Sequence to fold (285 residues):
Amino acid sequence: MGTPARILTSRAGLRAEVTESGAVRRFDCGPTTLTLFVGSQIECGPANLFLRRRSGTPGWTPLLGPASPTRLGTPAGGSTIAGRGVWQDIEYRVSLALAAAAPVWFWHVHLRNTSSAARELDLTYAQDVALAPYGAVRMNEYYVSQYVDHTPLSDPERGILIASRQNQAADGRYPWCLTGSLRRAVSFATDALDFHGLASRAGEPLTGMLGELPGRRLQHEHSLVVLRDAPLRLAAGESAQAGFFGGFTDDHPDATSAADLSRVRAILAVPEAAPAAAGLPADLP
Fold:
């Protein structure tokens, strides 16, 4: 709907359009569209970050889009945008940073418990994955989804990662991406059916936020990578840094294998992997 309020670009070819409400409208790398659906000012697409309270009365909130408490600031240098908000005594900042030298992106989240009691929290990252030309995606998202292979990988330090490969060649190429946690992911889903269920169609809470993720590979018609971070316990006044990363490869001729874990080190070696370098200070003002 209308012109996106903010456009982020990087020299590596990444381009993200973010609305005033923080919804990811489009996310591309060169001719390849990374996301399946187009977010808008009034309705966020499937791509989002979710903050959940595990202790006390359960509850959760999206950190992006019109239903979130986040208010965006001004983009920093054209490749980073940050926002802030408060939810149930948890003060947070969230930023999206596109790496300058590689097709890699980072969602950095800084949390601070402003209450007088400890809080146990977790973060969940959901990213609809297309890895196909924009025209092909707009013709039929379900068809595109059927050709995306999602392979869970296990890294000793980062936990579960999801490698996604488009098995339907685009101009002779097989686009691929790797999604992981900046801390340690402990559970996952690979299809919106396992995360949304049928509840969100009726305006009900997301199935995957009311309970735990299934930790199984499902490749139905709704390509969605979902990673949940290990729980965080914040004492009164305590802060913590968390987040997620993604890396894109325009052509991955071979099927995903454990050898692809070697890419994690290169992804995390770029400067934007550090919150301060990405424009998100270590401490909230």
